[in-house]
Amino acid sequence: MVISFRTRRVCLVLCVLLSALTLVLQNLWIPEGSEEQLPGKPRASEALPQYGVRKLALRLETLSSQIQALKRDNIPDRLDSLAETLQLLQKDHESSMHSVQKDLAMVWEKLDTLLKRSLTGGDTPPRTPLTGMPDSEVCKIPNDPAFPLCAGKVEFLRAHWRSDPCYAHYGVDGGACSILAYLSDREDFCPSLPGRNISQGPDKTHPKEGKEEAVIRADLTPLLELIGTGRGPAVRFMQSRIERLAGRWARAGERIREKLHHKPQAQLKVLLHPGVLAGGAGERFGELAERGGPLGELVQWSDVATALFILGHKVTFSTTLPELHRVIGAPPGKGSCPIQVPLPFDLLYTDYHGLAQLQACMGLSFNQYRCRFRVLDSFGTEPAFNQGEYSRLHGYSTAWGSWELQPRQYMTMFPHSPDNSFMGFVSEELGQDLEEEIQEHKEPNVAVVYGKQDYMWQGKESYLEAISQVMKIHGTVYQETGSPPRIPGYVLNHGLLSQDQLLELLKRAKLFIGLGFPYEGPAPLEAIALGCVFLQPRFDPAHTPQNSAFYRGKPTTRQVRSQHPYAEDFIGKPYVWTVDMSNSTEVQEAVRTILHSQVRPFTPYEFTREGMLERVFAYISHQDFCSLTPQPWPPENTLLARLGSLGESCTTVCLQAALVCEPAHFQLLNKPDTFSSLGLNCSSTSVEVNHLLPAYNERAQRCSLQREGLLFSCAGSDNSHKRLCPCRRYQPGQVALCQGCL
Ligand SMILES: *[C@@H]1O[C@H](CO)[C@@H](O)[C@H](O)[C@H]1NC(C)=O
Ligand SMILES: *[C@@H]1O[C@H](CO)[C@@H](O)[C@H](O)[C@H]1NC(C)=O
Ligand SMILES: *[C@@H]1O[C@H](CO)[C@@H](O)[C@H](O)[C@H]1NC(C)=O
């Protein structure tokens, strides 16, 4: 028991240090409260000095609870995670020292004022000594070595319980009993009071244990009811989409039930919180939707909600901050207290805005439950941007990244960033009968421009002019009353159309014309599904965060080579033509060929209802970021290791082999044996923190492995590393899944 004894001593020293630090930090803690986040604005908290302190305090909390756990249960298991937290703490410590110094100065100032006030008999409440309290007999501060922080915490709350109404909400009234009850029931800092029998500890059970089975549903009426009415234009848009497609979803549900052969899935409680709609930003976003603004996110939110509901899960929907507070059980106040555990949701789908909102209202519980978050993130987040410290040190810092979730917890619109999960949405699908009808209604001369706002048309005159010599161009451009849109006179403009009207027009049309913006929206897929050919500009040079205002500051290094890379790479001819917009000869040749070709309506399987249900089912069954030892998925035998060339990312290396990069397999690859199995000689082998690893340096015969799991990256590339890439095969039309990994 020598080890255990030593551990205990180390614990005690650590605990004393920690309580001191925690106290200082809690004094400095200024919660963000309900700070509003606007789309496109960086998270304000990042820039404030308090942010670092807050993060440091969160780590300390984690550390102290780990130490407590260490003494209660299995020591060797806990030591690893303790060491990890200590490492993180050290990193945070470095970056936070500056802000701590600043804040300490502030505290001195405050103390000074307080001292002066108490000397002059000011308005500070009289300090009742704990022993003088009526309840002191029952509620003595326990001297339990398992709860070394208890006394300090009680002192802190006695002085500060009024600083946040959440303490009062949990019954704290300034008396020792109420404080001890709070610190034992809610925060785990003190031992339970005698006679009390509440086990409120965080819910550590695996979310899928002991659940009912999810049963595939056909009726979407309850979903429409729980989304509710009267929530503004954005929610109305989603409701009308769900309503319009309800019948087809139900049929897809039936097909997927057969396909799954009664594979069981536990019924999960799922929260959907589109943060972008919450608060004032939501109204502006909704208003934009009515003027031809971006609808892609709303399309995706509707479809994710519908898919989860059809699959039989319990869906809750929140679009405002008060609703969010209510449904996750946040106490009223500024976020100093933990939420009422256990969190009533197994999974929380949100977006970047929603993450900040969740962090503000979950307080300490945010970190505890982060493994349950899923972030809808259309443009993707690469690992180098996701890891806070690394991104700061290596120039990958952006307003959006640094949340340090598992990269696969970010879910994209298109499968462009394999480090993330491809969530997608559903495109229009036609039955066989409708397909015939469409072929009859096609007017070969009709071309429709993809661009609802006239600024998208500027500078595209010669391109459109070239097309207009072959076909009649129609527009659906939003029109301000009194000011005609700035578009060429030969265009037949229908004004902004409802979704139904737009689909009718596309059914008649032969060609759908991309102007280069918006990037990667749902519309081209819908046009192709209705039998149109999509013509789009090639970007040379590629658009990147360096040269494109739109991608600037996004947490990605993607090279976007056309308006819709998915359409170009995964669909291609005869459905998609990518041209040099400035070359009228090339444009006209393409349009003439399209005019004389017969193209049938087409929808890639992964964008059908069935395909999306299958994918969401697979993610829910297999993606597990909460267990310490999750079941490997996709199965380990699907790994195909590849060595890249200099300058190639693993995304590229795998795609070139008609495979896809599978980040779940990096761990399997990150071993010295891999180099020899690929026939590489290592004159030295190192383990480093670098998002380009594992990799091989040919000249020096240097083999390098990855130390930091969060930094495994399909996307990373540079000219001195040959990357070791974990590729796998994928189902045709369903890149997220491999054969037999459903
Ligand atoms: C505590 O509550 C649980 C169930 O709520 C009960 O089974 C248990 O007997 C109680 N323990 C005591 C000491 O009252
Ligand atoms: C324009 O396109 C045509 C046909 O594809 C090609 O032959 C020609 O070289 C291109 N012109 C320029 C300037 O790229
Ligand atoms: C590795 O080393 C062995 C023996 O030293 C040599 O025969 C082989 O050619 C080397 N392979 C490469 C790829 O350099």
Automatic annotation (TrEMBL):
GO biological process: protein N-linked glycosylation
EC number: 2.4.1.155
Domain Glycosyltransferase family 18 catalytic: 166-727
Pathway assigned to this chain's UniProt record: Protein modification; protein glycosylation
Signal peptide from the UniProt entry: 1-26
Pfam family, one: Glyco_transf_18
GO cellular component: Golgi membrane
Name of the molecule in the record: alpha-1,6-mannosyl-glycoprotein 6-beta-N-acetylglucosaminyltransferase
Organism from which the protein derives: Acipenser oxyrinchus oxyrinchus
Lineage, opening ranks: Eukaryota, Metazoa, Chordata, Craniata, Vertebrata
